[in-house]
Amino acid sequence: MKIILIDNYTPDRQESMRRFTNMLRDGFKQSGFSVTVWRPTVFFGYIPKTTLSGFGKWLGYIDKWLLFPVVLFFRGLFLSKEYHYHICDHSNSAYLNPLPKSRTSITCHDVLAIRGALGFKDAYCEASAMGKVLQNSILKNLLKTDKIASVSHLTHNQLTDLNNGKSKPNWTVIHNGFNAGFVSLKEEEWQQKLREHNMERLINKPYIVHVGSNLPRKNRKMLLLMVDKLGAKWDGIICFTGQPMDSKLKQLAQELNLTDRIVEIKKPDHKYLEALICGAQVFVFPSYSEGFGWPVIEAQACGTPVLASHLEPMPEVGGNGALYANPDDADSFAAKFLEIINPSVAERLVASGFENTKRFDTDVMIKAYLNFFTI
Questions:
Q1: What is the Cβ-side half-sphere exposure of residue 320, based on CA atoms within 13 angstroms?
Q2: Peptide bond before 268: cis, by omega within 30 degrees of 0?
Q3: pTM, full prediction
Q4: Alpha carbons 53 and 68: distance in angstroms, whole number
Q5: Is 349 exposed, middle or buried (0-12, 13-18, 19+ CB in 10 A)?
Q6: Which H or E run contains 210?
Q7: Taking the CB of residue 348, how many other CB atoms lie within 10 A of it?
Q8: pLDDT per residue over 5-53, tens digit each?
Q9: In what helix (H) or strand (E) does residue 87 lie, and over which residues does it extend?
Q10: CA geometry: angle 368, 285, 173, nearest 5 deg
């Protein structure tokens, strides 16, 4: 068997999908298989400054949805039946059509955008009129696919529900492998990194950290509401990394008199983020919805206790290496926080977290995909 991986359109800058494709490519090569990566050629996408918005987005659509399917069809004509095609991102499910259906599979990372376009409020993903058309097309092609590997049981179950409650024999779950390079740093190491960024404030007081954006589903406000409920029981700092706080979050912080206890760090590089997570007293992740919930595992790999939403897939991913609370209940989060900062509980969670990360070994994932391809 030879493997062709179908990757994303480069100008769209979908870095997480690119890392996933590279992880598969490297793993298959190390297992002795011939691997080639195909992705849409950039023709019209060279014209605009960006293909992420405006007129440039439509030019990108021409490259992705009009030209590349034709390229796939004709390239496939000259290849033997020993080739297996794998579409690495379910949002490219339309590429199934020009490829041999029996030798093509797809990884489904989540169905959040699809469910949002269909009106499911718990997806927390609103769609534009054009977005609804696009997501409907993605879903139709997914449901025609015989081989789908979902990255979590939640995604698999939601996809099954979208297919009138019917799964297919070769729809399965393969957890992502963990190779993001997060490790537990010694105290002097993470403190030195924070000093390099003039963050002595985070060395001198305990802090909690959140990694993510201002999307409603990320539920960033829960960190503020939780700390407000804690009152005098905890006087540490709230550290938001990723996107800067939006106006609504800033207003809430002001109303709760927490503005002076907040540190914002915009898109820290990997080493800086690693140090921030390692130094945190607790990693707080109160999301309403996620495709996989990578930050939970990243925090566990850093040796930091995790407090996360009790909604799936967080418990599926975090296992026994985290505590969970209702993302709509600040009292629940505050109670679990007081529990987690107990030294004996924190020590137990850190040990369980390290053990949990072993479930996401990349070699295990690669073997699962190779078996999946040959079903």
A1: 8
A2: no
A3: 0.88
A4: 20
A5: buried
A6: strand 207-212
A7: 15
A8: 999 999 988 888 998 999 999 999 999 999 999 999 999 988 888 887 8
A9: strand 83-87
A10: 15
**CA quadruple 261, 187, 281, 286: dihedral sign:** positive
Instruction: Specify whether the CB–CB gap between 214 and 245 falls below 8 A.
Output: yes
Q: How far apart are CA 69 and CA 91, in angstroms?
A: 14
Residue whose entry in the numeric block shows the structure tokens 């915009």: 266
DSSP 99-133: S-GGGEEEEE---HHHHHHTT-GGG-----HHHHH
Burial 3-17 (b: 16+ CB within 10 A, else e): bbbbbbbebbebeeb
Q: What are phi and psi of 100, to 5 degrees?
A: -65, 115
pLDDT above 70 covers a percentage of the chain that reads: 99
Residue range 82-129, pLDDT digits in tens: 999 999 999 999 999 999 999 999 999 999 999 999 999 988 888 889
Distance between CA atoms of 301 and 41, rounded to whole angstroms? 37
Task: Tell me the C-alpha distance between 49 and 57, whole Å.
Answer: 10
Residues in the chain: 375
Beta strands across the sheet bearing 282-285: 262-266, 237-242, 207-212, 282-285, 306-309, 323-325
* DSSP sequence for 357-369: HGGG-HHHHHHHH
Amino acid in the structure at residue 313:
P
* Cβ atoms of 112 and 216 closer than 8 Å: no
